[in-house]
Amino acid sequence: MRVMVIVKATKDSEAGVLPSTEVLTEMGRFNEELIKAGVMLSGDGLRASSHGVRVRFGGGRSTVIDGPFTETKELIAGFWLWQVKSIDEAVEWIRRSPFRKGSEEIEIRPVLEAEDFGERLTPELRAQEAGQRARAAGKS
Amino acid sequence: MTAAQAHRTIDALWRIESARIIAALTRLLRDVALAEELAQDALLAALEQWPRSGIPDNPGAWLMATAKHRAIDQLRRQRMLARKHEALGHELEMAQSDNDGRLEERADEAVGDDLLRLMFIACHPLLSTEARTALTLKLLAGLTTAEIARAFLVPEPTIAQRIVRAKRTLAAARVPFETLRPEQLRERLSSVMEVIYLVFNEGYSATGGEHWVRHSMCEEALRLGRVLAELAPRDAEAHGLVALMEIQASRLKARIGAGGEPILLMQQNRALWDRLLIQRGLIALARGEALGESRGPYLLQAAIAACHARAASPAETDWVLITALYDELARLTPSPVVELNRAVAVSMAYGPAAGLELTDRLAAQGVLRSYHLLPSVRGDLLARLGRYEEARGEFERAAALTHNTRECRLLRERAAACEDERDEEE
Question: Mind telling me how many Å the CA of A133 is from chain B's nearest CA?
Fold first, then answer.
């Protein structure tokens, strides 16, 4: 199964404080371990929400709101995509991450698979949905 | 912590740690069966203690340390036994205490090489392919016998028997756990790759009712392949194998229709291809090719798969390049199946008549007499040339040869379509 490992924002990440060389080294080592185990598919860190925008829909209109945003716990600072056998395996991996020394909160969510939808997703819908995803990813 | 929680954690840890623990213990004990047994013992100890005491801070290290202690105890016992037999005196005892120091030291050496050596043992040429596959999944992927049995659609005792027999064969032959000479390395690596690709195909070819369960074999194989490529980063073929599997796996959702029928590459909805896996595949391919060796069969097949992955439609595919890659592959590993694929590529690059000529040669050789794809491809080429009556005959022949009921129905439909075309012409 594929899971998204979501790293929640902290005061520091929102303030744009970049990790120290020491933390970066440790994170590099952790990523190396994930790669060697064939677990890591991709991952990236995100800039602080002050660089981002929100687009809110309602009443047939859209409003663009510039960052930064408050309520830090609901913001994310980075993510990984992992391939694991179970969500428990993902938990064990994150337990050995450099975050174990910090105070971050990490959320782990299984990626929805087409078969999760059952019959609700007709073949036509499936194709349409995947087409959108492919265009979003850009054809290589 | 509840017992159920502890069990879930321990299962997950086993998945992450078991191969490394078994590999480290095999180095100490030079006995893979005993190594697995002691690793399991450590796991049982965790199952007993953790629900009461809580999970230790570094549970992976706990398991490894517990297993190593057991291995060292075992070695000491073996030595004591040997000493009793030989009744040696004081001198040996001095040497013994020195040896113990070295034992602890040896137990802490790096594990990367151990893992690769364990792969070589599990995929030893002495063992049958089936035994290698079962042993690899058990020792290196941390799967249970029941999980392996389910994936391969065989009864559990059969798999258990295979594993027991494989271990016995290894013990009887005293297969060493050591670094290989460069000239051996190539051969043994290909044995490992063969097993990994076989596991992948077990999942990839599954179309039956439980195909989602069996698709997990693709994930296992991909994971083992990625591990192997990291252990042998200078081996171009290891990267080639990973690239091939990543790109093929990217098509998993597109190759089975809503009714469970298989969909061939050319008819697949490419929007369903997994872009993340394609990107990973292309990167692995580039890594392999950057090593500058002449390309082996996995890299070549990956390069072919990459041509398809890069194309937005069959018509936009670089068929001339694919033909050239098949030429190279046919020179390296000549086989009728490669030849048939080459014929399809040639037909796309240079027209159906050129492709048909190649399949004529295959048909004349009579080598693929019971392989349904030969008449199926010929039927396709003949239909493209407007020779519907001959095409109908080929599709009928192909339908009679396939064992897959859905594919059979598909081929009969194509035969019927040819009949309609012919009738319209008359």
Answer: 8
